[in-house]
Amino acid sequence: MFTHIMIGSNDLERSRRFYDATFHALGGKPGQMDARGRLIYLHNGGRLMITKPIDGHPATAANGGTIGILAASPAEVRAWHSEGTRHGGTAIETPPSERPDGSFVAYLRDPDDNKLSVRSLPTPGQ
Predict the structure, then answer these.
(1) 17-39: per-residue pLDDT in tens?
(2) How far apart are CA 114 and CA 63, in angstroms?
(3) Which residues pair with 88 in a beta bridge?
(4) Would you say the C-alpha torsion 52, 36, 16, 6 has a positive or negative sign?
(5) Which terminus of the chain, N or C, has less C-beta within 10 A?
(6) What is the pTM (predicted TM-score) of this model?
(7) Class of domain 5-120 as given by CATH
């Protein structure tokens, strides 16, 4: 259904440090800057793009919006959360934890206040 998710940032280098660290924790690669000055992350078939707003106004986070990212395991979720808080993210909601459905979830706000969630799915048979 989706081709990509694009979010705004007021400081692309700060965003690069945060997202490089959190995607590395998930086994991903550093972001690449395209010819239009957008930071692009490709991971497990998804594309996250980060840009300064083209209208020249400050970037703001979506009120009520959450970007969900898939992790391979609870260990990756914990590593993502740890790297995110070490690189300018803010821990929100509950600490990384298992949900009643058996998934393992963590939440952060990135340095521009975008809400992120990483989830590992339950293993079959749970």
Answers:
(1) 999 999 999 999 999 999 999 99
(2) 9
(3) none
(4) positive
(5) N
(6) 0.90
(7) alpha beta
